[in-house]
């Protein structure tokens, strides 16, 4: 979610500044230092504004294709390649206008590359992970459910069911259901504290045993999943909780 908001805002920034630059013929805060340094004329400034609009549209295109392809990371990488090509086009036009290799904007090229690198690192960190990868090789799977609430007297309670070992058929059903879900890193995923960010009223605990090693997966109803004490984001986690309850624990 953070990455999508980042792309959306970055797209707005480039498009709005590019349109202003194209209509006014004046550089914006994004390009003022670069364009004034190389004494480029109004016509080039307007053309440069079009490049910014194209960059913003590419960012929105990445966002739309990423959403439409159910989190396919290839859409992000393809968009980053297009942005890199577009930035090379920008530098080519500046160089062609200057006709002087000694004035090639190396510093600005470095800043642009850093921006693309930063976006790529964000894409890599927040890329989706398929839930099925955690379960498909498990030899044995157990599930328990916990419900949290407050009784009539105002006291908090936890209603926890005993762990249930899934049969071969139930395990295959769970694996099939898990293939439809992905989870993402968030800003606190690097911490190993196993704490929830919200206050779920329901969680499902999955114990997946593989090669004598048991992996603990906690799925909450608050768009969160905890794997081996690391917290991750799962936007539709409540749907997974409902699917598991209705299909396996009913």
Can you describe this structure?
The protein is of the alpha+beta class and about 250 residues long. About 50% of the residues lie in helices and about 20% in strands. It has eight helices and nine strands. It has helices at about 1-25, 30-35, 40-70, 75-100, 105-125, 130-135, 170-180, 235-245; strands spanning about 130, 140-150, 155-160, 165, 180-185, 200-210, 215-220, 225, 230-235. Strands 1, 2, 3, 4, 5, 6, 7, 8 and 9 form a nine-stranded antiparallel beta sheet that branches. The relative contact order is 0.10. The model has no long low-confidence stretch (mean pLDDT about 75).
Low-confidence stretches: none
Helix content: 40-55%
Radius of gyration: 25 Å
The best one-word shape is elongated
Total number of beta strands: 9
Task: Tell me the structural class.
Answer: alpha+beta
Overall pLDDT, averaged?
Answer: 77
What is the straight-line distance between the termini?
A: 32 Å
Secondary-structure element series: HHHHHEHEEEHEEEEEH
H/I helix tally: 8
- In what range is the share of β-strand residues? 15-25%
Q: Tell me about the biggest sheet? A: 9 strands, antiparallel
């Amino acid at each position: 979610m953070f990455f999508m908001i980042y792309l959306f805002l970055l797209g707005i920034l480039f498009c709005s500044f590019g349109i202003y630059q194209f209509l006014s013929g004046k550089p914006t805060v994004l390009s003022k230092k670069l364009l004034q340094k190389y004494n480029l004329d109004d016509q080039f400034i307007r053309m440069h504004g079009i490049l910014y609009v194209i960059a913003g549209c590419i960012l929105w295109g990445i966002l739309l294709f990423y959403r439409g392809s159910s989190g396919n990371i290839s859409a992000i990488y393809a968009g980053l390649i297009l942005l890199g090509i577009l930035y090379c086009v920008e530098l080519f036009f500046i160089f062609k206008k200057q006709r002087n290799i000694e004035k090639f904007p190396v510093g600005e090229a470095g800043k642009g590359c850093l921006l693309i690198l930063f976006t790529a690192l964000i894409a890599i960190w927040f890329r989706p992970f398929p839930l099925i990868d955690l379960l498909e090789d498990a030899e044995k799977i157990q599930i328990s459910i916990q419900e949290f609430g407050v009784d009539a007297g105002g006291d908090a309670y936890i209603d926890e069911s005993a762990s249930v070992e899934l049969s071969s058929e139930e395990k295959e059903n769970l694996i099939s259901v898990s293939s439809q879900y992905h989870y993402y890193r968030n800003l606190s995923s690097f911490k190993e504290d196993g704490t929830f960010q919200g206050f779920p009223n329901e969680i499902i605990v999955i114990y997946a045993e593989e090669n004598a090693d048991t992996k603990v997966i906690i799925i909450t109803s608050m768009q969160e999943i905890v794997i081996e004490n690391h917290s991750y984001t799962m936007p539709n986690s409540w749907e997974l909780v409902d699917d598991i309850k209705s299909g396996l624990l009913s």
